[in-house]
Design a protein that fits this description.
The chain is elongated. About 25% of the residues lie in helices and about 40% in strands. It is an alpha+beta fold and about 150 residues long. It has a single domain, classed as Thiol Ester Dehydrase, Chain A, CATH 3.10.129. A hairpin with a 2-residue loop joins strand 6 and strand 7. Strands 2, 3, 5, 6, 7 and 8 form a 6-stranded antiparallel β-sheet that branches. It has 6 helices and 8 strands, in the order E-H-E-E-H-H-H-H-H-E-E-E-E-E.
Amino acid sequence: MSITVNGLDELKKLAGSDLGTSEWIEITQERINTFADATGDHQWIHVDPQKAAEGPFGAPIAHGYLTLSLFIPLFTELLDVQGVTTKVNYGLNKVRFPSPVKVGSRIRLVGRLAEVDEVPGGVQITVDGTIEVEGGGKPAAVLQSLSRFYA
């Protein structure tokens, strides 16, 4: 369930709030292959199912940066900011990949709006995100994302 806010003032009031949990999405071999084509990273551990089955994880795994790139579509399930003119990904403070995401796994995002800070013409939000693997003991990614919203 998404939280919807209208404008920067409503967004500021959410500072320190848990944003909830996104829906699960499946990581398919097709998604991994498409990411490999887009980035030029065709390492066998991602794109060669037969060789990866004999590798350290027993199956192909998603690129860490594929998992990270899914933060945005998962995040948009949690928070919808309306009444602003521009939304910009500003960067990341921290990213770690504690566990691999095997083909066929499902992931989801748990988010918390840690901070909302004033910037010229808008606000910058800091989101603490954990990308969980269904049935996994450790998260696939732990990150702190920065986004800016302008009035």
